[in-house]
Write a structure and sequence with these properties.
Layout: E1 11-14, E2 30-37, E3 40-47, H1 51-69, H2 77-82, E4 89-90, H3 93-108, H4 118-124, H5 136-143, E5 152-153, E6 157-159, H6 169-186, E7 191-196, E8 199-203, E9 212-217, E10 224-230, E11 234-239, E12 244-246, E13 252-254, E14 257-258, E15 263-264, E16 269-276, H7 279-303, E17 308-313, E18 317-321, E19 328-330, E20 338-342
Parallel strand pairs: 18-20
Antiparallel strand pairs: 1-9, 2-3, 3-7, 4-6, 5-6, 7-8, 8-11, 9-10, 10-19, 11-16, 12-13, 14-15, 16-17, 17-18
Bound molecules: adenosine-5'-diphosphate and magnesium ion (MG).
């Protein structure tokens, strides 16, 4: 079976690291920290006097959170829950918060997001890159243990049924971004850009007062189909092109599964970008809306006012919510992609 490695660079970022122009204002000092954590490359750029110390604290925090949420580290809380054999496990406040949030989104999306999908992801090989197409029997067997409603959680203690395994990976990076932003802000940072494996989160504007320019990766090739201008927000994408393999049957299978079928979600969408104040919401929704498809995503958007979205369909149409129109510009080379604005 052909293996294709996950494409980590899904979002290109352009930003000015220092002003080239001579100006009376001193150029803000910038510091960057790049490291590998949570199975991905993370890069954080912060501006200001305290940037270096703030970034060191941020990296330490990521490592603490990874130690709590890793599915493979035997000391992590998630590992302990997954090997609890039906017993109750007390969790830290951070894990409790993430759990609570993940279950809330599962409820809200009618199970499009389901942290108990993990054993099926493993069966497909998405957790190890040792890809294979599971048999129908195996999928049915595992689907019997896939149901977030069977998780008992009282705010402090988690109990999952025997055979169930969970992974909070679809929301963990967004929540990590939110916690990093808290640390940077506590340390006086007013301008920063976080790229956590393609999850973009920003504090303020660039030091020169202009918006950050984010390149949105084309789901059809290596280029960026659009540029998006943003300040003080998270811009988080889930795409079928990020991690996938081509089976012996010639079909493409990607890493976002529909918990109702145990197979890669085919809702008609190939890329979903969610923009909002909270990284955790954007991260959770980018995965969920990918599963839900255009119609249900639009319905959810109409009922809430805490996120905006850019959807790309498999047949090359872009849908963006009305508030984004002025921040979004289609790159010339992708002029063949038809754009439609979704109104409330
Ligand atoms: P990534 O974390 O790969 O950037 P996402 O935030 O979209 O992208 O999360 C996708 C990850 O979530 C997958 O790699 C898989 O581990 C897990 N996942 C896939 N489908 C679902 C689902 N329906 N519900 C919850 N988690 C999922
Ligand atoms: Mg996600």
């Amino acid at each position: 079976m052909k293996k294709i490695f996950p494409c980590i660079l899904m979002v290109g970022i352009f930003f000015l690291t220092a002003c080239v122009k001579q100006s009376a204002e001193p150029v803000a000092e910038s510091q960057n920290k790049s490291f590998f954590a949570m199975d991905t490359y993370m890069s954080i750029t912060a501006y200001g006097k305290n940037a270096e110390a703030a970034l060191n604290k941020a990296e330490e925090r990521v490592s603490e959170l990874e130690n709590l949420w890793s599915v493979t580290n035997e000391n992590s809380e998630i590992y302990v829950i997954n090997h609890s054999n039906g017993q109750s496990v007390a969790v830290s406040p951070e894990t409790a918060e993430l759990f609570d949030f993940s279950l809330e989104i599962s409820e809200m999306t009618d199970g499009a997001l389901d942290c108990s999908i993990y054993p099926i992801l493993t069966e497909w090989g998405f957790t190890t890159s040792d890809y294979k197409i599971p048999t129908e029997e195996k999928i049915s067997e595992l689907l019997a243990y896939t149901d977030y409603r069977k998780i008992n959680f009282n705010g402090e203690i988690v109990q999952i049924p025997k055979h169930m395994q969970i992974d909070l990976g679809a929301v963990g990076k967004g929540y990590t971004g939110d916690l990093i932003i808290d640390i940077l802000e506590e340390n006086g940072i007013e301008s920063a850009l976080l790229d956590l494996g393609g999850n973009i989160q920003t504090i303020g504007t660039k030091p020169d007062g202009t918006d950050w320019k984010i390149g949105l990766r084309s789901p059809f090739d290596e280029g960026n189909f659009a540029t998006f201008e943003v300040s003080d927000r998270a811009v988080i994408t889930s795409g079928g092109y990020e991690r996938y393999f081509v089976g012996d049957d010639g079909e493409t299978y990607w890493h976002i599964l529909d918990p109702k079928t145990g197979k890669p979600a085919h809702s008609g969408l190939i890329s979903v970008t969610v923009i909002g104040d909270e990284g955790r919401l954007c991260d959770a929704l980018s995965t969920s809306l990918f599963v839900m498809g255009l119609e249900k995503a639009t319905e959810l958007w109409k009922n809430r006012d805490d996120f905006e979205m850019i959807l790309v369909t498999e047949d090359g149409k872009i849908y963006l919510t009305e508030a984004l129109e002025n921040q979004f510009s289609l790159n010339q080379m992708y002029g063949n992609l038809q754009t439609e604005v979704i109104h409330k």
